[in-house]
Write a structure and sequence with these properties.
5-stranded antiparallel β-sheet; 17 helices; 558 residues; Chondroitinase Ac, Chain A, domain 3
């Protein structure tokens, strides 16, 4: 043991002697600048001094570097750069922060070990005492100031190493299995769906993706999934089935559409706006000023037998509308009108758009002899959009929303099967929405592919209170959308605050600049309703406000 300590001490003193540094806990910005400074010396050699090299680096925008410390970052970075350049110039090897390296290594070892032996995460329990650290690394031979800095850095690095290693051992294998399984299933399912669609079209079979699609048991056997983990297998099957259907339908309809050129009308519409109509019954109206250059609009009548009506009654032909805007720029504050002739009863009729093989209701205005939907220009520009009119007798109006300020948004969400309401036919719009209810709405509007793996949900002590929707909560946890409480509870029935909703939406949309205040401000001007978030962001959001927000944020999809 003595020989081992003497060896460690000898190496430490040797490196410290050559580096010319006793100990330094530099900032991340200093360390980054130091590394780049050494690289610049390797590039320019003795042709420059440190100041000139830094000047060139600055003129190049620091090669895109962004400081970690907003206050002192550039100062630390510049000092590190010059130190690194001069050390390289003088042949000095970079110093090693032994406390960080050793602390991180020990923390990582204990974190991974605790997970694999089934011990709960607790880095403080594993952290050696100060005396143990001093004795282990023979720090009594160093001065008191060195020991204090060493211990502080060692502990911070130990905590990070432990937490990172424990979390990685806990989450990474499952996440990787699910992600890889879904991707592989998507790839194989898409290829097979395309093959069988081409076969059906050539043989003049009607479109039916279910005709040759393999069962789950056949998929498992076909791709030898019995030898892989359950998480991978479930994700593979889900990805395969979803992609098979989409690929099959897209391929079949693409082949059919190539024969339908005579079913198309087209027109160039100038910046002053105009109308284009198809003989079989749809009209598209573009107001003046929506586009800043001429646009090309085409309307193609589709073969209705190729579409799944989802149990609804088709009351029009189905049309593909394509609008090519070469300039890309447009005024998205205006709307484009899509109209169908209609003379029947107004109950449950509406205009629908096909999105990802599903029909989605668009807010529809019904007047004598026609029905109309107004869409954002961006939802129809430079893409193919398919529209039709349906009667959906399976839909209902929730009785307590008919005169509510959010009735239009709630009704749209009901007809898109995002909001289901309570068994008594109510929505209770002014009630507060719970954490679990909000996640359920998000899962429907985002079409989450939910895994069967729920171990991270069962971690919570109150799991029994939400096991009926544990897959949704498990998915949200694994994606980092929401977290539990420090006491190992999830509290799904707690009402959710405006602040919590804001954080979740930022994570789901990957948009850290999203703010609930924007929605609340729009709500005040659009509906003359003042949100209680203006008083305190910790107040609880109502069910009506949640429905309005989700509608407000997602109309760009349709």
């Amino acid at each position: 043991m003595k020989r081992k300590k003497l060896f460690i001490l000898s190496i430490t003193i040797l490196l410290l002697t050559f580096s010319g540094v006793v100990y330094a806990a530099y900032s991340p910005d200093y360390d980054a600048g130091y590394t780049v400074g050494r690289e610049y010396y390797a590039k320019y050699g003795t042709a420059l001094n440190a100041e000139n090299a830094l000047t060139i680096h600055a003129l190049n925008g620091y090669d895109g570097y962004i400081p970690k410390d907003a206050t002192n970052g550039w100062r630390d970075y510049s000092e590190g750069f010059k130190a690194g350049y001069n050390d390289a110039l003088n042949g000095v090897s970079p110093s090693v922060n032994y406390a960080d390296s050793l602390g991180n290594a020990e923390g990582s070892r204990f974190g991974a070990r605790d997970y694999y032996i089934g011990v709960s995460s607790n880095w403080l329990y594993r952290l050696p005492s100060d005396s143990e650290i001093v004795n282990k690394y023979n720090l009594t031979l160093m001065n008191a100031e060195y020991r204090i800095k060493f211990l502080d850095s060692f502990k911070a690095a130990f905590e990070k190493g432990y937490v990172d290693a424990y979390e990685k051992a806990l989450i990474e294998p499952v996440r990787n299995s699910m992600s890889q399984g879904l991707a592989n299933g998507n790839s194989v399912g898409s290829a097979m769906g395309k093959t069988f669609a081409e076969k059906d079209y050539i043989m003049k079979n009607n479109i039916n993706f279910k005709r040759d699609i393999p069962t789950e048991e056949e998929i498992i056997k076909m791709f030898n999934l019995t030898k892989d983990t359950k998480e991978y297998r479930d994700a593979f099957i889900q990805g395969f089935l979803a992609s098979y259907e989409v690929s099959y339908n897209q391929t079949y309809r693409s082949l059919a559409a190539s024969e339908a050129q005579n079913r198309t009308v087209s027109k160039i519409i100038g910046i002053s706006g105009d109308t284009i109509s198809h003989n079989n019954g749809v009209t598209v109206t573009i107001p003046s000023g929506v586009f800043y250059k001429d646009v090309y609009v085409s309307i193609e009548n589709q073969y209705t037998e190729y579409f799944n009506n989802q149990g609804m009654i088709l009351v029009s032909d189905i049309f593909k509308i394509k609008l090519d805007n070469p300039s890309i720029s447009l005024d998205n504050d205006q709307t484009i009108d899509i109209e169908f002739p209609y003379y029947g009863k107004s109950t449950n009729v509406g205009i629908y758009k096909l999105v990802n093989e599903k029909w989605y209701y668009l807010p529809t205005i019904i007047s004598e002899g026609k029905i109309k939907a107004s869409v954002m220009p961006s939802t129809i520009t430079n893409k193919e959009s398919i529209y039709a009119a349906f009667i959906d007798n399976g839909q209902r109006t929730l009785i307590d929303t008919r005169n509510h300020w959010a009735k239009d948004e709630i009704n749209t969400m009901v007809r898109r099967n995002v909001i289901l309401g309570y068994p008594d036919g109510t929505f209770r719009p002014e009630d507060k929405i719970t954490r679990a209810e909000f996640l359920i709405l998000l899962s429907r509007i985002e079409n989450w592919t939910l895994p069967n793996y729920v171990a991270n949900a069962t971690y919570f002590k109150d799991y029994k209170t939400f096991e009926n929707y544990d897959r949704i909560i498990s998915y949200s946890l694994s994606m980092g959308y929401i977290k539990g409480y420090p006491d190992r509870t999830f509290r799904p029935n707690n009402n959710i605050s405006y602040k919590e909703v804001e954080l979740i939406i930022q994570r789901v949309t990957k948009n850290p600049s999203f703010g609930w205040t924007d929605v609340a401000t729009n709500l005040m001007y659009d509906k003359t309703v003042r949100s209680k978030s203006f008083d305190d962001m910790n107040n609880k959001i109502t069910r009506a406000e949640a429905a309005y927000m989700l509608y407000y944020l997602n109309e760009w999809r349709y």
